[in-house]
UniProtKB/TrEMBL annotation:
Record organism: Bradyrhizobium nanningense
Protein name: NB-ARC domain-containing protein
Amino acid sequence: MRAAHIERLVPNIEAIGPGPLFETFGTRFLARLLDIPLVQRGVSVRGNPIGRTVDATALNDSTVAEFSTEKGYFAGDKPRNDLAHITYRHPSAKQIYLVSSQVAPAGSIDAFVEANRSQGRSVHVLDARRIAEEIVDRLMVSDDAIDDLSEFIPALATVRDEHALDLRAPRPGSRHIQRLDVDAAIAEALRRSPCIAISGMGGVGKSEAAAAYVETHRSEYVQTIWLDGVQIERIEDLSAAAIRRAGDALNVVGLLNSRRCLLVIDDARVNLEPAQLSKMCGQGSHIILTRRVASNSYSLPLLTENESKSLLEADGVDPCPRPIFEKVLATAGGHPLSLALINAAVANGTIWDDIAIDCEEIGKFTDGDIRIYERILGRLRPNLEGELAVFAWADQPICDTGFLRYAIKPVGVRNLQANALTAVDRASVVRLHEIVFAALRSGIWCSEARAAELEDDLELYIASLSRGDAHDLQTVAATHRRTLEARITAGDRRPAYLYALIFAWDAADANVPSLPDPTDLARAIRDASGPARDMQLLLVIETVEALFRYEREIKGSTEAKLKYRDRLSVFDILEDTPGLNSRQRAEIIHHRGKLHRAIGDGAQAAKLFERVLESEVPLSEAKLQLVRLYSKEPNLNVKRAQQLTDELVASIAAGGEGLSSSVTLGLIEALHWAREDWSDNVFEANYDLFMAHVSRGLLAGIPQAYETLASIVRNWAWTNPSRLKMLSGLIDTASAHDIREDRGRGAYAEIQQKLAKTTGEAADKHLNLALQGFEALKRPSAYQRRNHAETLLELGRFLEADTILRKIVDPESRPFVAFSLSKANLGLGNLKEALAFADEAVAAAEGRNARFKPSFLEQRAAVRSEVDRSALDGHNGGIKSQ
């Protein structure tokens, strides 16, 4: 990933111009890099170049720099001339920097520096690549530096934000009241202790106060980090938490120890003790916890009278009459969320006299009392009923951001935020304040007519995603799974709803009775017309595949394949359907090909996929399927596999327009499953490109990304284990319990198990994380059970491993099961069986498994050595106690 970021930044640096702009960038860059103030002298205040002066100097002239955007800078005499100019103008300079926006030929910088080495003076030459390297390696951890340089390289902010995700503190809201006393109190508390807790009732502004403190004091820290308390169940979890900068996982505890760092854990659990957390802080680092109740905490005060009045009259609303203001204070006190909601109501047309009536009806507000919210939400109803109806209809406080923007338009989302109704959450969802949602549930906010509209909106939104990236569909389906299942239970079996649920369900969790009979639906499609037919077509195809996955999990592969074959007639019906467009016909042929491949008819599958590529819509998915088929016997066709791989790689490198992330990740995985020199070469040649996509998938929590990384780790564990260290930081922030689907959890567990081989003292940590992953599986496959056993072997739990391995019946993986059984029985002291299993593994190491023969031979040699030693000692090779 480091290399990928460098490659991304280099062309952006080359593009900075004209010269004066690059000088400004270069001066800021060097000042950040060297951590010293530099004065830019080569450009006037109007941005014009100034002659006969050095571009930038330190205050004491010990450090000087020249900047250039000249093409061919390193091919001519420009570096030498710049150096001569500097030494003439500043003969006492000790550190000289020549900075170019161009890329230097290999070796030219070292040669120049060596030729101009001088006693008492150091010459540093930075080209575009070296600038990018310094930014990635040394400046990426500084939000301040990246914010500063992003003015010149916008991609910098994107690179940083891709990996930081939601870890940066949210900015204070538009109604934020600056509270100098609160800021001073927090600062004083942190002066006394590195870790403090801010406590107070819901809606009192704890998160807002913490965010405001971060905003005000950001420059005092190298790094600011914002974590949701739900991520940290106990102090030990903080040791495993990491943020990402430049593709590397930087451990939070390590950051607290090594640099000035401010960490906020918002809505922290009560078991997180400040005294214990303080021990994690190095010099200048601090931790702020926010939570409702905390001992030894800073209890956030309510707003003062003046602050309350400022918030109540924010955004230019009419001044609140004094008698009414006193009633508001008597009711809500200085409670910020209550006052913000009243302000929003007035801004939306409620008169102050009506607010006074509300206050008289409610009486005094207390913590947890939702009556004031019920009243104020009632005042907001005319302007926000449509927006809030979505949450009432979904019966949950969160909504998928994409669907919400579709249903109420971006302006509706902004209205929710502007009226102080939303809480901080991840970007993929919009969340209402908990107490606001509680008030919402106490009333009737969604009419039957509005519910019908939203049901239609959800249907149309799902349809709009049906041919996009499947991961977007998975996100909305997972967020609204409960809503969708409730509609299905109520009898609303729209094809779009069922289609989305297929993407939300694990294979074995599919609600099969709710799915249509694919044959009946295929026949019905022939008589349908209009847009609905397209959604029905997709539902037929996905139902066939969902039933296969379900039956494979529940009844086994053999029976599942028999039933899958019986459903070939579904595709006969679909192909005979009149009026389909070219894409629909290509999809039908493609999925028929997938069916043939699944039941072992690779030759027919290849013909069908080739038909797709010859059609008007040559699906990239068909290319991927052919790469998988042609990379292995009995359909081996290396030349064609390479050709299709090159086409897919070119599409990915060009930005992947029309190419789903599923295909990209699938190609990376296919290259490792191929286990051939050509596929290894393709992967190595495009390593940075591929790993950028894997990393993005991991950050998004996509199960397929874990499977893809597992294929890489699996290959390297056998062929090049020393490289595994390069990948150890990619999943530091993940937990098996946070990953959707068994396939993702199993891949996570396998990655941890393989990483344990190269991490020394951390091996047990990785092995125990692997065990957590394997134990979290609902229905482990034969392959996952074998890896579970391997993990137990690494921990010396031979009898448990032997028990698992002997229950695996899978001819394809038998050589590896025998290999593992040999290790288990060697550990148990059952030498005869250990040798027999080793012989079995070696004998099976032929064809595509030949590359594993050295490992099998090594195991057999270890068993024979133990047999020989045992014979010398007079043992008979019986089973020893564990």
